[in-house]
Amino acid sequence: GNSVTQMEGPVTLSEEAFLTINCTYTATGYPSLFWYVQYPGEGLQLLLKATKADDKGSNKGFEATYRKETTSFHLEKGSVQVSDSAVYFCALNRPGSARQLTFGSGTQLTVLP
Amino acid sequence: ETGVTQSPTHLIKTRGQQVTLRCSSQSGHNTVSWYQQALGQGPQFIFQYYREEENGRGNFPPRFSGLQFPNYSSELNVNALELDDSALYLCASSLEGSNSPLHFGNGTRLTVT
């Protein structure tokens, strides 16, 4: 079946540091890949997505590239801000059903001023 | 544009009881999905509804059931509550179509004692 493995947290960085959160997946077929972010007390928000191999998703300075050969979708940001503190979830969809997402366990990011 | 709203925000129930959680879709969205997020875990797909019918289900027992109404709002019902049902329950709405992103509500925090 489908599964997503995320780098375990929590991750604590200083403002302006470089961020990488690792994500690898197992899936049948050709899923789309997503990063969602969850701020305290809020629901999930879509951060970025990629729908096919070698696609790069980007938003708000975050980037992730769909790597089929390594089954990875690592999240990166060149310079984090305090406001980026949140829980980040990597996810994939079951091919043929865009709304049936399989999530990783999440990575808590704290950015210190 | 009104986002996805869920009620109640918090709920405490006793083992063996039944509970109903409610979700109002984002305006114009005709598909609703429900997810269970245990503490410290990623969300797990429960089921989705389209045109008032269930058209996808995750690995949850039959005591988890739902409804979608003509105005696209939805309910999640859980019978015979167990302690492990304690979680954040997230509703997400979307338009029909594989490229339509999910829009999540802030969730209902259910505690079973």
Summary, kept brief:
Chain A has 113 residues and is mainly beta. Helices cover 0% and strands 54% of the residues of chain A.
* Proportion in β-strands of chain A: over 45%
**Cα-based radius of gyration of chain B, to the nearest Å:** 13 Å
- The N- and C-terminal alpha carbons of chain B lie at a distance of 37 Å
Mean pLDDT score of chain B, rounded? 92
Poorly predicted parts of chain A = none
Measured by DSSP, the beta-strand proportion of chain B falls in over 45%
Major β-sheet profile of chain B: 7 strands, mixed
Name the assembly state: heterodimer
What is the succession of H and E elements of chain A? EEEEEEEEEEEE
- Provide the gyration radius of chain A in Å: 13 Å
In whole angstroms, how far apart are the ends of chain A?
A: 41 Å
Query: What is the general shape of chain B?
Result: globular
- Which structural category do the helix and sheet elements of chain A fall into? mainly beta
For the largest interface, the chains and their residue counts are: A-B, 22 and 26 residues
Summed up, the helix count of chain B is 0
Overall geometry of chain A: globular
State the low-pLDDT regions of chain B, or none: none
- Estimated helix fraction of chain B: under 10%
